[in-house]
Amino acid sequence: MNSAASTWLPVSQVISRNLSVFEASSSLLVVNAPEIGVWQQWSADTVLHFFSQDFRVHSELQQAGFQSHFAAVVNELPDNADVLLYWPKSKELARMLLSMLLSLMDAGRQLWIVGEHQEGVKSAAKILLEDHEIELSKLDNARRCTLYRVTVDRAFPVFDIETWLHYSSVVLDDTELQVVSLPGVFSLGELDEGTALLLPNMKLPELGRVLDFGCGAGIIGAVAKRRNPQLDIELIDVSALALESARRTLAQNGIEALVYPSNAWSDIEGRFKVVLSNPPFHTGIKTDYRAVTELIAQARKKIVYDGWLEVVANAHLPYEGWLQEQFKRVAVVAETTKFKVYSARG
């Protein structure tokens, strides 16, 4: 293992010590790699393809010259492709990904699964047996991770994303919204406490562009548009699953808004009257403040002179200090024992 590998995630280190396992494949589809470093040392003749539901990783892969596809679902596999799946934190998302991938794989192809124990990869054996009556074998166990192999032995049913959609209803004082969510999207099937505090307290302008930053299933942007149809609402997220959920939430409620991927501000053009957000602070099960720190660091430049940022956060997190470093006026406009809604201007 080279010196750079010591900084990689544990799953990447396990892949690095098992790269020879994949070299017999003529084509390999890598699904949801969390980082790209290990694949930059690939030297075998195997043709690598990547599928990512994370726009940040997808962009890094493309910039590094790899073939990468960003979407909520895979509709077809490259010819003669075996598959390596990185296990997600969400067990239901894992079930969906397995059903999707197995439905596309020919008998005799190999499916490898790698993941961290604390993210639940050990449940792969039970899920495959219960859902698909298929057994797997363990290839490696290191760095608190396991690498498994499955030999596909038959054709599996056609995958239908419609069967994985969750529908729920959000009722506020002035509106009712039907929310559509896919597995792996934050607060699946329910309104989280933070968003529930933000919605009745968010201030909207009469006109202008409003951004739902880190939109998830699209609740904040949809409610804003429902309250004031004159607004130009845009919803962004790094997750293909969130973007697909947001599009479906908007369609379900007859609401029109612009939905597109962006890694923080990477693909956002122009300036906004208001930016609204309940930003994530986890990647998998690990704390990750990248999204919120990038949101706050650049928000002032992306908001017009008389605009504002409204963000909800866990009360124990240091958002107020971060906001005060960038904005002249920061106020708490609503709070509970668990959450605070901040408004920042100037």
From TrEMBL:
Residues 176-343 form the Methyltransferase small domain. GO terms for molecular function: nucleic acid binding; rRNA (guanine-N2-)-methyltransferase activity. Residues 12-165 form the Methyltransferase small N-terminal domain. SUPFAM superfamilies: S-adenosyl-L-methionine-dependent methyltransferases (SSF53335). Keywords: Cytoplasm, Methyltransferase, rRNA processing, S-adenosyl-L-methionine, Transferase. Pfam families: MTS, MTS_N. Coiled coil: none annotated. It comes from the Bacteria. PANTHER family: RIBOSOMAL RNA SMALL SUBUNIT METHYLTRANSFERASE C (PTHR47816). This is 16S rRNA (Guanine(1207)-N(2))-methyltransferase RsmC. It comes from Proteobacteria bacterium 228.
